[in-house]
């Protein structure tokens, strides 16, 4: 990094800020892509809610009879 020391302090700060910003956005988009790739949790929640509503409707039918 011999060439990096010849820059003005403000330019060094901009280079570091740009590098850090690129890293942070890269990690963010990678994480969002990895998490959004599978929707297993939402599918499990939907199945649980459906099962729960069926059990509640069955219990109200049997209690009315």
UniProtKB/TrEMBL annotation:
InterPro entries: Coa3_CC. The keyword DNA repair does not apply. Residues 10-35 form the Cytochrome c oxidase assembly factor 3 mitochondrial coiled-coil domain. Keywords: Membrane, Transmembrane, Transmembrane helix. It comes from the Eukaryota. The chain crosses the membrane at residues 14-31. This is Cytochrome c oxidase assembly factor 3 mitochondrial coiled-coil domain-containing protein. The lineage of its organism: Eukaryota, Viridiplantae, Streptophyta, Embryophyta, Tracheophyta.
């Amino acid at each position: 990094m011999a060439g990096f020391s010849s820059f003005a302090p403000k330019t060094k700060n901009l280079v570091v800020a740009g590098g850090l910003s690129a890293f942070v956005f890269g990690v963010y988009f990678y994480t969002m892509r990895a998490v959004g790739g599978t929707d297993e949790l939402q599918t499990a929640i939907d199945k649980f809610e459906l099962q729960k509503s069926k059990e509640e409707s069955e219990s109200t039918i049997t209690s009315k009879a």
